[in-house]
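Reading group handout, session on sequence-to-structure problems. Before we discuss, look at one worked example. The prompt was deliberately terse, the way you'd type it at a terminal:

> structure Nitroreductase

The input record follows.
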Amino acid sequence: MSNYIKKLHWRYATKKFNPEKEVSEEDLETLLEAIRLSASSYGLQPYEVIVIKDPEVRAKLKPAAFSQPQITDASYLLVFAYNTNVDQDYVDKFIKSNSEIRNKPEEEFEGLKDMIENSVLTFSEDKKEAWAARQAYIALGNLLSAAAHLEIDACPMEGFKPDEFDELLDLRSKNLKSVALTTLGYRSEDDELQDEKKVRKSKEELFTRI
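And the output record:
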């Protein structure tokens, strides 16, 4: 079994964290870079991630996450929020960024720009928000894999009240809506879940080979 697969077997949605053991700044930056390098549709990355260490802020958010202890016991709380305003200006800035980073004229990215304008920008608002949220989940998945590689525990969460998070973090003013949370830290020694076998579908059930 490859080391990567072993790490995926090792990880689980940690519910009980050790509040005395903190994720280092160096490891946090590695995990954030893994998020930044995640794949997304056209490379648009229509989301942002709010990284919260401040214990007072997390304490205020905790009731909106049904008082789950990992919100305050883990080292960090990450809020994945999708952008509700992916418009022509957003696309223009993206194309300009491509031009500057790759040191090529914007005209060379006209084909990419046309594809985005004829797809994403034609979506209804509901469809566009659903699309943006899916992109955020890709980044979340990449984070979980990277955290497992470093043997840092994580707990992805949908059990929270997005509207309350959005209000407390003033996300609406930034055209953002929270869609998922992840806590990062280290498991408590008495977290019973760490010794449970991972339950997943068998390969026969999950995969269809053609």
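Points for discussion. First: Residues 3-206 form a domain with the NADH Oxidase fold (CATH 3.40.109.10). Second: The radius of gyration is 19 Å.
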